[in-house]
Amino acid sequence: MKKLMTMATILAAAVAVSAPTKSRRAATAAGDDEVTTGRAAKILIEQEPRLGQQVCLGAPAVPGNTLVGQCYKKPRRWIVIETKYATFGTEKSKFLDQLTFTWHVLLETKSATENKGNKEGLAPYSYFTASTSYFNIPMGSHAAGVCLPPSYLERYGEPKAIGLEISNQNGEILNGDCWSEIKGIEPHKKFWENADIMNATGRDGKPMIARRQGLVDRSKTIWALVNPNDYEATVQ
């Protein structure tokens, strides 16, 4: 069994890594129907997702009273991961039928706000993934995003690597990329497809990465109330 001390060591062992994708170059997909598959439609990532403290935000306040009242007097922050993208219409239509955004997120435990020193002995990194499909996307600029509630930041830490793939309803990838601040995980390479990284163990034989659940589409959180016109309809 591999005993790896750092993510840099993991990368050294991973000779073959999935090919990078281009975040700022418009991409197309092949298909028989120009409108539904997006054969002639270009998807451009206009603003890349950010990492670390930049995506840890205080939730918007909604005035009102409850029978319970406030449980937390101290402000808490959410992990809010977003990207801005642009779509370009075709000769037949100014709309795309569907786009699916698949996110891959690594949180770094040592950056947890309420778990200093990692007394629980958690894995150094936590991996989350989630997909959201948007429908009837008009030509122009839009936003897409996913969130993790405050307890994830407090226990598992900040996002230090983010991967994104944008595909049509046929599963054809139109655009995407990977952004990383983790030593040993290079930007623009699909860490989630690299078995040497995802299954690596430390010197103690324990996994370096724990798979977890909880990443949700922005529309299912309080953040749905912020700039709602920037986000297209999703299936509930």
Question: What's the topology here?
Answer:
Elements: H1 7-13, H2 34-37, E1 43-47, E2 56-58, E3 77-87, E4 95-108, E5 125-138, E6 140-148, H3 150-156, E7 158-167, E8 173-180, H4 195-198, E9 209-211, E10 216-217, E11 233-234
Parallel strand pairs: 5-9
Antiparallel strand pairs: 1-3, 2-3, 3-6, 4-5, 4-7, 5-11, 6-10, 7-8
Q: What does the oligomeric state look like here?
A: single chain
Order of helices and strands: HHEEEEEEHEEHEEE
Number of helices: 4
Using only CA atoms, what is the Rg? 19 Å
Overall outline = flat
- Report the helical percentage: under 10%
End-to-end distance: 43 Å
Low-confidence stretches: 1-5, 10-40
The structure class reads: mainly beta
For the record, the count of structural domains works out to 1
Say how many strands there are: 11
Average pLDDT figure: 83
Strand portion, in percent?
Answer: 25-35%
How is the biggest beta sheet arranged?
A: 6 strands, mixed
Describe the structure.
This protein has 236 residues and is mostly beta strands. The chain has one domain. It has helices at residues 7-13, 34-37, 150-156, 195-198; strands at 43-47, 56-58, 77-87, 95-108, 125-138, 140-148, 158-167, 173-180, 209-211, 216-217, 233-234. The strands form two sheets. Strands 4, 5, 7, 8, 9 and 11 form a six-stranded mixed β-sheet that branches. It is flat, with a radius of gyration of 19 Å.
